[in-house]
């Protein structure tokens, strides 16, 4: 079995909120501010985490993913084009889901 990871590899366990006992339940980083599983480019100026914001708004997978790509776009890369394109792709996926549901 090939153990190399693609550039799209995602560690799903880092998205789990294993620190609920430390976390106050709001969208701020609170008790997990120093959690090494959350990269800096996913945290805002005041400690807001992109994934917590998406959870708070109860966004669908594709919309939430697009939002996180938009929030990190200028923070992760010198040129945000790749992140912006990924966000556009996920918005298109969401539109396709709505169109499929409307045909059903």
What does this structure look like?
The chain is mainly alpha-helical. It has one domain (21-103). 44% of the residues lie in helices and 0% in strands. It is built from three helices and no strands. It has helices spanning 50-56, 61-76, 81-103. The longest helix has 23 residues, at 81-103. The chain is globular. The protein starts with 49 loop residues before the first helix and ends with a helix. 14% of the residues are buried. Mean pLDDT is 76; it is low at 10-15 and 18-33.
Binned strand content: under 5%
- Count of individual helical segments: 3
What is the number of E strands? Answer: 0
Rg computed from alpha carbons, rounded to a whole number of angstroms:
15 Å
Mean pLDDT: 76
Q: Give helix % range.
A: 40-55%
- The number of distinct structural domains comes to 1
**Oligomer designation:** single chain
What global shape is seen? Answer: globular
Provide the structure class: mainly alpha
Give the topology string: H per helix, E per strand: HHH
Give the biggest beta sheet: none
Low-pLDDT stretches: 10-15, 18-33
Cα separation of the termini = 40 Å
